[in-house]
Fold:
Amino acid sequence: MLSFPTNKPLIVITMGDPSGIGPEIIMKALADLSKERSAVFVIVGDAGVMRSAAASFYGKPLAVKRIGDSFEQDAVNLVDPGPELKGVKAGISTDDGARKALSCLDTAIRIVRDAPEGASPAMVTAPVSKERIARLSPGFVGHTEYLEKAFSSRMVTMAMVGKHFTVIPVTRHIPLSEVPGKLTTRLIVDTIAQVVESRYLLSGKDAARIGVAALNPHGGEGGHIGKEEIDIINPAVDKARSFYGAIEGPLPADVIFYKAFNKEIDIVVSMYHDQCLAPFKMVDFATGVNTTLGLGCVRTSPDHGTAFDIAGKGLASPTSMEEAIRLAARAVRAS
Amino acid sequence: MLSFPTNKPLIVITMGDPSGIGPEIIMKALADLSKERSAVFVIVGDAGVMRSAAASFYGKPLAVKRIGDSFEQDAVNLVDPGPELKGVKAGISTDDGARKALSCLDTAIRIVRDAPEGASPAMVTAPVSKERIARLSPGFVGHTEYLEKAFSSRMVTMAMVGKHFTVIPVTRHIPLSEVPGKLTTRLIVDTIAQVVESRYLLSGKDAARIGVAALNPHGGEGGHIGKEEIDIINPAVDKARSFYGAIEGPLPADVIFYKAFNKEIDIVVSMYHDQCLAPFKMVDFATGVNTTLGLGCVRTSPDHGTAFDIAGKGLASPTSMEEAIRLAARAVRAS
Structure:
């Protein structure tokens, strides 16, 4: 049993791959955010790696805790599930490092899952090497799917929150040729329902304006360029309007992002990965935050990878990690 | 036989639908461009409609010509294939208006096609009502396809030239589900070849940097999320590099537009309509210019429709038409 602070939200941050930029950007972000701190922070990571990152980029010592200890409200707490890594080299990915990253993730999940009623903790995950973890733990494809299983979710939705707008792909990492076959009215309605439920997290507004993208060029032009709008997406939008009014669509992809970029739409529900990620990353490449809906707790992460090529050089920008932590804090406060 | 000016390029502009914003934006654009005029302009349109638009938005009379007359270099020339329309009302689309728009397009094609060797005229087309023309002339789907037939082209390519970057969709107005099946290495190579040939028109640079987009999320992740990159797109990029060096790709859609927006790539060759038009129109909604490659002459058009809802109110922005005329002038001078 873990002890939770009673008057501040708890944000649990995983280290990610110890040889990547995770430790550096976590400590840089917490240093930058130290004045607006309204949450209690717990890092789950390797004690040696995180102490060293804290010495370089944070300037204050971490409060090392074991599971069962109380967390300190005025320090950054560190939980290390052990055993401590030896000889970690920045930029050089190892099996031991990947194993430790996964074990930290598991411990973070446990801290969040075992949280007492009402604690509403949030999780922020630093990047891992998917390929290396997949070799140690076959079937690992990424945080989102791993957390979906760990939290026994019926369905998770991935959202990218940017400075300009927020996007949600209804289908994710599948070949483009499989997208039309995967789309169902039910899947779109369920996705919109999760978006509506999390609209404050996703937009900072209770009255968020949601746009739903069409699948085909020009929105199918009344069935002349594809029937999915008529058969699948229109009925989904109609149904979704029965539980939330401010929904527009289906809008052609070459209209909806113009409207979003020009602040006429806050959240774009899109039919497939590249439809929304291409315009999103064009203007929010390094600043977007990935968040997973449907876990029962909030989870955010920076929108980039381990960046082994620049790890250990002090060059990594903490912006996306800062935004991920800010978003988690917004979510916890809003819940 | 038409008389061509000898020392200036000729730009032939079609009126488009007489009840749309075409006449207004043509005359506004020519007024705005009157100081930088390095071409001879011929409008093919209805005499009454264009005279009225000139009176409101241009301020000088048009030089009305018949086919066979010499064009004036210091005035805007007007050719009306007749018969003159009566009772045209702005905003109210009619069969007579659509018929006249099509007949003006045919006359413009004739002027351009019959041009003497070395005249290198360019065509700028104002928007028409595709739906209404299709009712009168079944099979009409748009300017691009109509011109493809009229000029007996083996293959045309549509490009959108914006302030930020230029995009070319390899496939155009087809359902998303048909995109993977239409892509072949040959089609992609042929498209890139037309782009390379027109790179100065498309980018204003002889050393344009061309990027080729992937089809699947994350570029297929080495075949894990779709095989088209490995089977179709990689071989096309390799082959294209044999005739032009500055080609990068296939790049994931959520990377390539970031690079284009940040001036690391000038021209994006994309696999399907929404992949490039969504990010393009997000930042160049009203300023993009549509141009058709492969006709044997340059053709540009503003990137918007007839806008019947604002026609006749003086509210239409000529920006995209101005850019279309400027691009045509650039092309004619470059040829």
